[in-house]
Amino acid sequence: MGLGGCYSIAKCFMVIVNCIIFVLSLGIVGLAIWMLVDSTFYVSMAVDHSNYTISLYILLAGGLFLLLVSFLGCCGAFGESQCMLVSFFCILLIVVVAQIAAAIWVYCNADKLEAMIRYNVKSTVQEEYYKDDRLKTTFDTIQQGLECCGAEYPSDWNESKNIIIGASLEEKHFHIPKSCCRPSIDAKRCEEATQKLNLGAGINYDIIYDKGCVTKVVDVVHDNMVIVLIVGIVIIVIEFVGLIFSLILAFGVSNSRHYKR
């Protein structure tokens, strides 16, 4: 009776763990699709566009893979299939090892994150803003959401190579994106403060945000990384519990069947 009760408890916990993994997997898949569709995530400034897209596809594939693993675990528990339970254990073990390796790599390269963000933000302002619609949309969202302007300073727009090259020799004008305007400013005043400014001229900080975006983006990305780390640890712990219960069930299947006879 004790053995049968323990087996039933292990089976119940196995199903619960896999249901949790299933829900988390749906969340991962949904987040990956959202980030692929919506280009305005601040974290996209941490890496270049190609690496960002590849990372999202890897995240999407990982979420779909975990969905398959959780389905396999539930079927193995309900069907009392030793083969499926062992397969579940082996596949999930590979996933856990890969996740731990990825976490270690991120931890070891965390000191490079700020440098990459600074480089990408400055590159966006000086080189890419008017050439890449995706970056333009993302950076406008950053400037409005974080209430900042430019990379280190709003005057960085004065140094934009794209703007200076496009300015006529007679007029020598440059532009600041309208997303730098404070929310209380009306459209006319924003237009006057951001369009056709003389190169080297002062900027009206009563209308334009006076802080650069680099530090604010770094802080947001660091905060998000902490959240991701906590969520990752929780997922790994849940998966580790799933490994334990899958082994218990796999070894207990034959004993349970014998007990039922």
Automatic annotation (TrEMBL):
Protein name, as recorded? Tetraspanin
- Please report a single Pfam family linked to this protein: Tetraspanin
UniProt KW keywords? Membrane, Transmembrane, Transmembrane helix
- Which residue spans traverse the membrane? 12-36, 56-78, 85-107, 226-253
Q: Where in the cell is it found?
A: Membrane
Q: Name one GO cellular component term.
A: plasma membrane
Keyword Zinc included in the entry's annotation: no
> Transmembrane as a keyword?
yes
UniProt topology in membrane: Multi-pass membrane protein
* Membership in a protein family: Belongs to the tetraspanin (TM4SF) family.
Q: Which SUPFAM superfamilies match?
A: Tetraspanin (SSF48652)
